[in-house]
């Protein structure tokens, strides 16, 4: 019985502690602003950077520009079901459509972009300007 009580105590303590130390997923306003995307985070010598600007988040929708100025986000949505903020969006330019998704962790974005017509998947990170 003492063992069961101890396990329950540890479980409750762990849940309470993790709730106090994790960033608030309700504060999605922290995504608003301009982000610098490192399109080749595995290569510190490459300066292949892009840009994302998130203008607003409203009723579960994300609005802004992705990759460069003038490329509007389409179908941008936010999900806060897990303990992290996750966003998915579509963008397009003269070379085709791109499906991108990313999540926020410790002030950085970690994402992927799938270039459908071009047949590649980019892994990227982003820091806020």
Protein described:
The protein starts with a helix and ends with a strand. An 8-stranded antiparallel beta sheet has the order 3-2-1-8-7-6-5-4, with no helix packed on it. It has 1 helix and 8 strands; from the N terminus they run H-E-E-E-E-E-E-E-E. It is an alpha+beta fold and 129 residues long. It has one domain: Avidin-like (Lipocalin, Beta Barrel), CATH 2.40.128.30. 16% of the residues lie in helices and 50% in strands.
Question: Number of DSSP strands?
Answer: 8
What is the helix content?
10-25%
Kindly report the oligomeric state of this protein: single chain
Which strand order spans the largest sheet, edge to edge or round the barrel?
3-2-1-8-7-6-5-4
- Low-confidence sequence ranges: 3-23
Cα(first) to Cα(last) distance is 54 Å
Task: Briefly characterize the structure.
The chain is α+β, with helices and mostly antiparallel strands and 129 residues long. Helix content is 16%, strand content 50%. A hairpin with a 4-residue loop joins strand 7 (108-115) and strand 8 (120-128).
Chain-wise SSE layout:
Layout: H1 2-21, E1 33-38, E2 49-58, E3 61-67, E4 74-79, E5 86-93, E6 96-105, E7 108-115, E8 120-128
Antiparallel strand pairs: 1-2, 1-8, 2-3, 4-5, 5-6, 6-7, 7-8
What are the key terms here?
alpha+beta, 50% strand, globular, disordered N terminus
């Amino acid at each position: 019985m003492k063992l069961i009580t101890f396990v329950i105590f540890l479980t409750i303590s762990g849940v309470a502690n993790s709730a106090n130390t994790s960033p608030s997923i309700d504060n999605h306003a922290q995504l608003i602003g301009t982000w610098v995307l490192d399109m080749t985070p595995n290569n510190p010598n490459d300066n292949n950077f892009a840009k994302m600007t998130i203008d607003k988040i409203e009723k579960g929708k994300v609005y802004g520009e992705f990759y460069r100025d003038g490329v509007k986000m389409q179908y941008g949505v936010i999900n806060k079901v897990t303990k992290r903020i996750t966003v998915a969006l579509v963008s397009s330019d003269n070379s085709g459509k791109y499906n991108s998704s990313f999540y926020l962790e410790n002030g950085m974005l970690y994402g992927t972009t799938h270039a459908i017509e071009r047949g590649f998947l980019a892994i990227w990170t982003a820091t806020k300007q």
